């Protein structure tokens, strides 16, 4: 099992992740994405899904038309771990 990142350390870790926020309960990180249209949003989701499969770490997400909301947490650890931060960084890389 992967160790959770201490809650007082998370704000420092999130500084390098543009727009990612700690959830109110401190158990996950999240970000809202907005695209030009549904096709762009769905294309993004497909690329995220492939990354998630490669890393065996899967997001919770919500999609309506051109919006995609992603939440990352490590359920086995009951909090945010390096797996979440790594996947968030990889997701950000898709947008460059």
Describe, in plain words, how this protein is organized in 3D:
With 96 residues, this protein is an alpha+beta fold. It has one domain (10-94): 2-Layer Sandwich (Gyrase A, domain 2), CATH 3.30.1360.20. Helices cover 38% and strands 20% of the residues. The protein has helices at residues 10-14, 38-55, 82-94, and strands spanning 21-22, 29-34, 60-64, 67-72. The protein has a four-stranded antiparallel beta sheet with strand order 1-2-4-3. A hairpin with a 6-residue loop joins strand 1 and strand 2. Helix 2 packs antiparallel against helix 3. The protein is globular and about 35 Å long. The relative contact order is 0.25. The mean pLDDT is 95.
Helix percentage range: 25-40%
The largest pleated sheet is described as:
4 strands, antiparallel
Number of strands: 4
Please give the count of helices: 3
Structural class call reads alpha+beta
Uncertain regions: pLDDT < 50 for 5+ in a row? none
Briefly, what is this?
This protein is an alpha+beta fold and 96 residues long. Helix content is 38%, strand content 20%.
